[in-house]
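job 3f2a | input accepted
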Amino acid sequence: MIQKLTVLNGIIQDAFIDGIPVKKRIITPSGKNNVRTLIPLDLNSALGITNHNTANESPTADGEMHAKYFQSVENADETYTGAHLFVDENAIIQALPLDEIAYHAGDGKGDGNRRTIAVEICENGMILKAEENAKKLNAALILTYPQFKVYKHQDWSGKYCPRVILGRNSWTNFVADIEAYVESAGKETSKSLETPWKLGGVQYARDEQFIEDYEYWLANIDNSMPAWAVFIIIQKVTEKIRQELLDSEEKALERIQDFLRESGGEK
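job 3f2a | predicted structure (267 res):
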């Protein structure tokens, strides 16, 4: 299940996102602030996620390789470029803290660079699997930062990117699948929050003998209650209240009688 991420100082703490390994390969700052800009990105006011393709079909050009490549770019101090996350068919690689601006959208000091997180989808292997992993990553980020929207590189600078998704005319479907993941995760979260008090209610009804077939009610915990069942439960509750009142009255009479005997008032 896709869930809200735990992010500490811009670093994703989760080891997996819906079973996809998350690996930290944070680039070490060196020299000029080109890949590692060290410029803060406020995640609470950030606009969202910009999705890219790596444009590298080499069989070895997975997420790990790209993270290593960007470290070499940082060391070379020549090119101002960067990406926060790389996604391939096997894993998600974080290369930059999420709360740090990266030069990825081609819009200079515009909102693409300064207010979105970059997700690079690798093209080296099973591209559809890599895209599916990227959808889940996008969904997890949206669950973590609910104001996030999903963008493509093309939205900021006009560049034909992510080229593979655009080439299939499947960008609309890509976004729709992310939205579906977010919606499904929200329903699962609500269900998990509801379950404890639902179970508690059925268990209480059993313990108080308002219901007899506990397994039946457990199996139908989310179903509508038929009218006959409502009336039977009302009857059982009423009988229990009446019995408790009678028991209470008898105990009160006994206490009065005990008091009278002790005080000598009863002959």
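job 3f2a | The chain is about 45% helix and 10% strand.
job 3f2a | closed
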